[in-house]
Each structure stands twice: as C-alpha cells, then as structure tokens.
Amino acid sequence: MLAPLLFYKLEQLIGASTPEHKKEIYIMINEKDFVGLDVGKFEIFVFIGTSATAFSVSNTPSGYALIQNKIGKPGAQIIALEPTGSYEWGVWETLDRAEYDVRQISVAHVRAFARATGALAKTDPIDARLITKFMAFRPDSGRKLPAKKLHILNALSSKHRQMVEVRKCVKC
After folding, report:
1. In angstroms, how far is the first alpha carbon of the chain from the final one?
2. Per-residue pLDDT tens for 66-112?
3. Order of strands across the sheet with 53-58?
C-alpha cells in the first residue's frame, strides 16, 4: 500500500513544482543522467537529459571525443543509442572502452514509446530526445556492447548472406 501512495505523492510533487525543482527531483529519482544518441552516417545528434542540452557532432573519432568532453566522467550517466546499420559501432566501441555505460536499444520500443507520448515528428534531434526519455522511463533496457568475436562473426555472416544473394542473381 505504501508504494502507490508514495508514487502518487511524487507525481503530485513533480506536477506542482517549478522547472528548477523538477530537474532536482529528476536527479534525486534517477541517480544517473541519461544521454540519447541518434547516430547517422555522417553526424551524431546528442541530447543530455538533466541539462536538456542538445548538440550534434560528426561521426568521427574527434566527434566521439567531443561527446566525452560534454557528458562528463564515466559512471554518472547511461548512454543509449539505436542500431543504425553499423554506423553506431565506432561511437559505441569508443565510449565502451572509456568505461561509459552505453546500451543499444530497440528501435521498435522507442517508436512505441514515441507513439504513446504523442511525439511523432521524425527528426534527428527529436529522436535523440526521445531516446533519452525512453531510457529514463526504462533504465534497465538495452544491451551492452557484444564481444569483439561476436561482432566479427556477425560481419562475416552478413557478407555470406550478401554473397549468397549475388550468387542467386547470377544463376537467374
């Protein structure tokens, strides 16, 4: 009985407080900050939850370093990104090596969350914000970076499938 009552009072407190207080309550509830990355072929859009800061960097090692500088020390945040056809691997591996808590989340889950919250616009900065909000809503979701051997095995499997498709087309 205590938990629903506590949740109700917390919702009342959040709804009745000023934006500055909401930020403090958000930090108290979630001990970690949430960072959403929307990764594209050439650019990464970043949204940092507690400070509501949005920026973009190039999808290069210098861009990854800029992300690290802006989000702070490892351990204070959970970073989430969506799978984007292997464009996310560089930033994912770099942040994982630097000991950040980086997770890949399901595109379908984020889209369902977006529909449920009424945020249907499809732009990269909005996607980064939605990824951040989704992680704040479900902080245990997502998967960690798989082992290097699995990454290589997946790449080889993908190449094998492509070669089989080419072989089928040649036989036609």
Report:
1. 68
2. 988 888 888 878 888 888 877 787 888 888 888 888 888 888 888 88
3. 53-58, 43-48, 33-39, 77-81, 101-104
> Is the distance from CB of 44 to CB of 67 less than 8 angstroms?
yes
Q: Which amino acid is at 128?
A: A
Q: Are 67 and 48 in contact (CB under 8 A)?
A: no
Dihedral (C-alpha) 96, 84, 128, 13: value to the nearest 10 degrees? Answer: -70
- In degrees, rounded to 5, the angle at the alpha carbon of residue 147 between the alpha carbons of residues 141 and 148 is 135
Residue 48 neighbours by CB distance under 10 Å = 22
Query: What pLDDT does residue 28 have?
Result: 41
pTM exceeds cut of 0.70:
no
Distance CA 16, CA 116 (A): 23
Q: Are strands 33-39 and 77-81 parallel, antiparallel or unpaired?
A: parallel
Q: Which residue has the tokens 């087309």?
A: 169
Which helix (H) or strand (E) covers residue 80, if one does? strand 77-81
- Render pLDDT for 13-71 as a digit per residue (tens, 0 to 9): 455 555 554 444 444 455 678 888 888 889 888 888 878 888 888 889 998 889 888 88
Closest CA to 47 of 57, 35, 31, 29: 35
